[in-house]
Design a protein that fits this description.
The structure is a single chain. By secondary structure, the protein is of the alpha+beta class. The termini are far apart.
Length: 85
């Protein structure tokens, strides 16, 4: 009987955790842009832009963070990039 009570309490906690995270979108800090933003600014293809972004991160010229955003009705972790000055 105690196992079923613990599972029930554990399930309630899990449900609360899931509900608290659903629908929560992180705000985009100033100066951070998705890869698509950099594509528009630089005028290169998606692949070339991502290669440049990866190279910038590797050489510590660009900072990358992951933010939770709605994509097609679901929360996804999207990379945002900012120049390190």
């Amino acid at each position: 009987m105690e196992d079923s009570v613990n599972k029930s309490e554990a399930q309630k906690l899990l449900d609360r955790i899931i509900q608290s995270s659903l629908g929560v979108e992180d705000p985009t800090p100033e100066g951070y842009y998705e890869a698509n933003g950099w594509i528009e600014m630089w005028g290169y293809s998606r692949t070339r832009t991502r290669n440049f972004l990866d190279l910038g991160v590797k050489n510590k010229l660009i900072e990358v963070i992951k933010l939770r955003k709605f994509v097609n009705g679901k929360i996804r972790h999207i990379k945002y990039y900012k120049e390190i000055k």
